[in-house]
Specification:
The chain is about 25% helix and about 25% strand. By secondary structure, the chain is an alpha+beta fold. The strands form two sheets. Strands 1, 2, 3, 4, 5, 6, 7 and 8 form an eight-stranded mixed β-sheet that branches. Strand 9 and strand 10 form a beta hairpin. The radius of gyration is 19 Å and the shape is elongated. It starts with 7 loop residues before the first helix and ends with a helix. The N terminus is likely disordered.
Length: about 200
C-alpha cells in the first residue's frame, strides 16, 4: 500500500513556519504560549540557588543567563504552555522533577497554528510530538495543530497498547500491522476507523 505525503497546502504551511523569524525568549516571556522540551537533571544543580519565581501551582523557576531550571510535579500542559521533560531523573522520593532548558529551546505555540508533527519509535512502540522548528521531521509526518496532533497521539497509543481491535484483523504479523497503521496515522488525514477497515 502506498502512503500519501501531506498536501500542497500542508507543505506551504510547513514552509512558512520554518521560514518565520525566530522569537527570542528570556525570563520575561518564556512562559507565554510556548512549547519546550526540558532535559531532566539532578536536583544538586539547584542546591545552591534560590528560586527566582514560584507559581501558584508550586512550580519553582531558577533563571540562568542561558536558560531556566524548572522544578515541578506536573509536566505536559503548564498554564498556556506545552512543556515536557525528557530523561527525567529520580528525585529521592519526591514527585517533583527538575528540568533544564536553554532559552533557545522555547518555540512559539498557538492552538490554531500547524506547528506539530509526530515522531514514532517502533522499537519501543512509542510516539512523541515535536514543534516543527525543534527537530527534523524524518518520517514525513503531517504538520498539524496541537489539538489534531494530540488526538492522533491518543490513537497511536491505542494501536500500540491495546489488543482487542486485533481480533477483527486477518493478519499474521501483528507488529507489522501496528506499524503500517501508525504510519498512516502520522502521514495521512484518514480516520483511524477508515485505516482499520482497509486492513480487514
Amino acid at each position: 500500500m502506498e502512503l500519501k505525503n501531506y498536501s500542497f497546502v500542508g507543505k506551504m504551511n510547513y514552509f512558512c513556519v520554518l521560514n518565520m523569524p525566530m522569537k527570542r525568549y528570556s525570563k520575561y516571556n518564556f512562559f507565554k504560549h510556548t512549547y519546550c522540551v526540558f532535559k531532566g537533571v539532578e536536583l544538586n544543580k539547584i542546591s545552591d540557588k534560590k528560586a527566582n519565581y514560584t507559581s501558584k501551582s508550586g512550580s519553582s523557576y531558577f533563571y540562568t543567563l542561558e536558560g531556566v531550571f524548572r522544578l515541578s510535579n506536573h509536566w505536559g500542559r503548564a498554564a498556556n504552555c506545552r512543556w515536557r521533560i525528557e530523561n527525567s531523573v529520580e528525585s529521592g522520593g519526591s514527585v517533583a522533577k527538575l528540568g533544564y532548558a536553554d532559552w533557545t529551546s522555547f518555540y512559539a505555540d498557538t492552538s490554531d497554528g500547524e506547528l506539530y508533527f509526530i515522531a514514532v519509535d517502533f522499537t519501543s512502540n512509542s510516539a512523541e510530538y515535536h514543534h516543527v522548528k525543534s527537530i527534523e521531521n524524518r518520517q514525513e509526518s503531517l504538520v498539524k495543530t496541537s489539538g489534531y496532533t494530540l488526538k492522533r497521539m491518543r490513537e497511536i497509543k491505542e494501536i500500540f497498547e491495546k489488543d482487542a481491535w486485533l481480533k477483527y484483523m486477518d493478519v499474521e504479523d501483528e507488529q507489522v500491522l501496528r506499524e503500517n497503521i501508525v504510519l498512516e496515522l502520522i502521514r495521512t488525514e484518514k480516520s483511524l476507523r477508515e485505516i482499520k477497515l482497509a486492513y480487514r
